[in-house]
Design a protein that fits this description.
By secondary structure, this protein is mainly alpha-helical. It has 6 helices and 2 strands. The protein has a domain of 95 residues: Arc Repressor Mutant, subunit A, CATH 1.10.10. The relative contact order is 0.11. Pfam families: MarR.
């Protein structure tokens, strides 16, 4: 059976979906030794980025920043909390909200995971000439344009 990636297609959405599914699978495999999934890493890395200023974001902010569904983020946050990588507490300014904070273990995990994901990205971008190639820059800009025109 032919590899679907080798067949010409104008179904851009299908190609993006296929690439995303394969990418996630590769990231899952790379992060498995660290006890993380690609989705958990996305939440943890997003929390790490949002927390750099000392801000403990609301769980909803974390979902919006990561681009993941709020219910999915809630489940991921519970799993990461159980693993000791983050904590949840009532938000000091909003009694209806939950503030999420990254722990030392979470920072260590995201640092180790970032190395793995970055190495995988370097490897995959060789097909376009590498991270600094013009084609990679164009791809990034095209993906950002597509993301700006999507709804949540």
């Amino acid at each position: 059976m032919a590899d679907p990636a080798d067949t010409p297609s104008t179904a851009v959405g299908f190609l993006i979906w296929q690439l995303s599914a394969r990418w996630q699978l590769e990231v899952d495999r790379a992060l498995a030794p660290l006890g993380l999934t690609a989705a958990q890493y996305a939440v943890l890395a997003s929390l790490h980025a949002l927390s750099r200023s000392g801000h403990a974001p609301r769980q909803r902010e974390l979902a919006d920043f990561s681009g993941l569904d709020r219910i999915h983020v809630s489940k991921l946050v519970r799993a990461l909390e159980g693993a000791g990588m983050l904590t949840r507490a009532p938000h000091p300014a909003d009694s209806r909200a939950v503030a999420v904070s990254i722990t030392r273990a979470g920072r260590e995990a995201v640092t180790a995971a970032r190395r793995e994901v970055s190495a995988l990205e370097e490897q995959r971008l060789l097909a376009l000439g590498g991270r600094d190639d013009r084609r990679t820059e164009e791809l990034v800009e095209s993906l950002r344009a597509l993301l700006r025109h999507t709804t949540r």
